[in-house]
Amino acid sequence: MNNIVGVCFVGQDVTGQKVVMDKYVLIQGDYKAIVHSPNLLIPPIFASDENTCCLEWNTAMEKLTGWSRGEVIGKMLAGEVFGSCCRLKGPDALTKFMIALHNAIGGIDTDKLPFSFFDRDGKNVQTLLTANKRVNMEGDIIGVFCFLQIASSELQQALKVQRQQEKQCVARMKELAYICQEIKNPLSGIHFTNSLLESTDLTEDQQQFLETSAACEKQILKIIRDIDLERIENGSLELEKAEFLLGSVINAVVSQAMLLLRERNLQLLRDIPEEIKTLAVYGDQARIQQVLADFLLNMVRYAPSSAGWVEIHVCPTLKQIPDGHILVHTEFKIVCPGEGLPPELVQDMFHGSRWVTQEGLGLSMCRKILKLMNGEVRYIRESERCYFLVVLEVPMPQKAGKGAAD
């Protein structure tokens, strides 16, 4: 009959929604309390939507620029706020500011960008701009959040030095990449010429010279191909292993020091057993050459020319291990009279996490490469001389090892 006969009540539990809303209101309250606090510790802060229209302009920004929040809210940050209200020095400054804003909207933050403008009274204000993306609860980018840091003269100078160093670092990396690429071409010519020489009639001495040249060529290729120092630092560098004559390594190492020896008028004394020439071992020939050559060259570089000598002493001994293989335990001693290497060079080699000299970096890397090959190096100073003591164990090829054992 369409008459009202009673009332029906339907209840819905909204406790969860109320808790979420309370938290949201609390967060919003905290945000506004922090951003708009007159406390001097709160930096100048402003924000925009995804179209770079100003949504936020805190108390510190009002004091810094002279423009109130109501005068800038809703205006375009690039062009109206900074450009018209707060004049910029030129179009380049506006372009850099726009790039920073749009990078942040694209997810790329900007940190401490030098940013200067004129306040309401025409005073030049120098700051550092940090621009970060703003995201909603779902993680979508909805604008930009920026704050300014007043740049002291000391901070500006430090940042200028940092930028110069970064530019120098990039320039050095480009130079290194260029050298690594271009050096391959003449090396290919050397390799081809050596291959032609191999097919000609050579004396025994000429054959040895050719082998030494080929070994040095291989060493250069190895260095420029495996130039990732981080892999050396963390011990992940891969070592190539092949059979070679230990005498060939000694010849290649000595050849790399001969020009400097002659230039400094130093005599090279060799205490090397005759059997080294024909002693076959198994390992990374190029890396062993690199390590020994670096130690020898540094000793030659700092040997006193008045004394007139550097000595290389090699002492191999065979050692059989339980699995039947034969190891060649070799001690290389590279000696010079006098004080030898400067203390900072030794510090770079053994202790420096940040190297001071290029030679120290090379020695440090060689020490780490040697460690990868289960070798070690010590630098020892005595009263009238100093020396590198390099200890390395490499296996003999299996067939050679059996013959030696027999």
From TrEMBL:
- Record's keyword terms, sorted: Chromophore, Phosphoprotein, Photoreceptor protein, Receptor, Repeat, Sensory transduction
User: What Pfam family is a match, any one?
Assistant: HisKA
According to its UniProt record, the EC number is 2.7.13.3
Residue intervals of the PAS domain: 30-82
Q: Where is the Histidine kinase domain?
A: 178-398
Top-level EC class as recorded in UniProt: transferase
Give the CDD domains listed for this entry: HATPase_Phy-like (cd16932), HisKA (cd00082), PAS (cd00130)
Q: Which GO terms describe its biological process?
A: regulation of DNA-templated transcription
What GO molecular function terms would the record report?
phosphorelay sensor kinase activity; photoreceptor activity
Coiled coil region boundaries: none
GO cellular component terms?
A: nucleus
Domain of life the protein comes from: Eukaryota
Instruction: Report the catalytic activity.
Output: ATP + protein L-histidine = ADP + protein N-phospho-L-histidine
By sequence similarity, the record places it as follows: Belongs to the phytochrome family.
Q: What does this protein do?
A: Regulatory photoreceptor which exists in two forms that are reversibly interconvertible by light: the Pr form that absorbs maximally in the red region of the spectrum and the Pfr form that absorbs maximally in the far-red region. Photoconversion of Pr to Pfr induces an array of morphogenic responses, whereas reconversion of Pfr to Pr cancels the induction of those responses. Pfr controls the expression of a number of nuclear genes including those encoding the small subunit of ribulose-bisphosphate carboxylase, chlorophyll A/B binding protein, protochlorophyllide reductase, rRNA, etc.
By what name is this protein known?
histidine kinase
Q: Which organism is it from?
A: Salix purpurea (Purple osier willow)
